[in-house]
Structure to design on (290 residues):
């Protein structure tokens, strides 16, 4: 028997690992990978809450949590495709994928 | 400690360990492979939550599609990031501080609401035992919810528009400019 808080703690740890990657990494593709980890952590939370709340209403299975998780999955796919297209485009034009060298908008 | 808890700890350790590899490894290709392992660990967590459908979707979308896309992008942008350079920017210490403080705060708050030990008397204190028919029924219910007006038909259609826009946008962004074609 696993208490809900264990899932929440694992999800929080995965989210913070992703957060660290987003802040500390130089490569754009690595930053995108860290964002994917964070989205996965959110999905664990959604699914865990959905699974544990069925205790309250076991006879009518609600699909709210599942639907949310599927939408997160969809948005993650869209985000990955556009983000990686941007990375390839930036690499073509500027010959770099390091985030700190892409500073056109700065000053 | 029951067998189920042992399996959970093992899966979590794999998921988080490979997650750490993703954010720290210098070699991006190895980081991408570790990311696939981390996604697999998350899929295993879904199986432990009796949501086989999400585990299958995770395998197809994340491991099957997004990971391959990321590996393609790594290979196409590879040669600039040589191995001498640091994989981090100028503030890895500050980032570590932020991540650790965030984790501590989240855990400090959530243990106030949800017990760390199994406690059937509290809400969400233990996982409800349900017959298999409830889980089998939840997938058709999800399908109907996606296409019924009372459910999620509007978000569903917006999601399809979002995917179409992302598809067209990705092609338009990655399309070579006219000077590059001439060169």
């Amino acid at each position: 028997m696993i208490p809900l808080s264990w899932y929440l703690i694992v999800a929080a740890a995965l989210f913070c690992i992703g957060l660290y990657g987003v802040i500390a990494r130089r490569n754009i593709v690595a930053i995108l990978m860290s964002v994917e980890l964070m989205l996965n952590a959110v999905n664990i939370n959604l699914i865990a809450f959905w699974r544990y709340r069925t205790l309250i209403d076991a006879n009518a299975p609600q699909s709210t949590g599942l639907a949310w998780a599927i939408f997160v999955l969809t948005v993650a796919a869209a985000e990955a495709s556009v983000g990686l297209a941007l990375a390839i485009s930036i690499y073509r034009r500027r010959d770099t994928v390091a985030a700190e060298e892409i500073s056109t908008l700065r000053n | 400690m029951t067998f189920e808890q042992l399996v959970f700890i093992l899966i979590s350790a794999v998921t988080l360990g490979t997650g750490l590899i993703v954010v720290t490894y210098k070699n991006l290709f190895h980081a991408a492979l570790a990311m696939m392992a981390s996604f697999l660990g998350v899929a295993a967590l879904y199986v432990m939550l009796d949501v086989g459908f999400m585990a299958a979707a995770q395998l197809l979308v994340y491991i099957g599609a997004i990971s391959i896309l990321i590996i393609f992008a790594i290979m196409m942008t590879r040669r600039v990031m040589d191995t001498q350079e640091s994989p981090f920017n100028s503030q890895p210490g500050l980032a570590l501080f932020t991540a650790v403080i965030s984790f501590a705060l989240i855990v400090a708050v959530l243990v106030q609401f949800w017990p760390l030990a199994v406690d059937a008397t509290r809400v969400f204190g233990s996982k409800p035992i349900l017959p298999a028919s409830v889980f089998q029924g939840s997938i058709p219910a999800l399908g109907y919810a996606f296409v019924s007006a009372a459910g999620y038909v509007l978000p569903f259609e917006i999601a399809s528009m979002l995917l179409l826009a992302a598809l067209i946008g990705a092609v338009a962004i990655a399309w070579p400019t006219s000077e590059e074609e001439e060169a």
Notes: The first helix of chain A runs from residue 4 to 24. Chain A touches chain B through 79 residues (CB under 8 Å). Helices of chain A lie at 4-24, 28-53, 64-94.
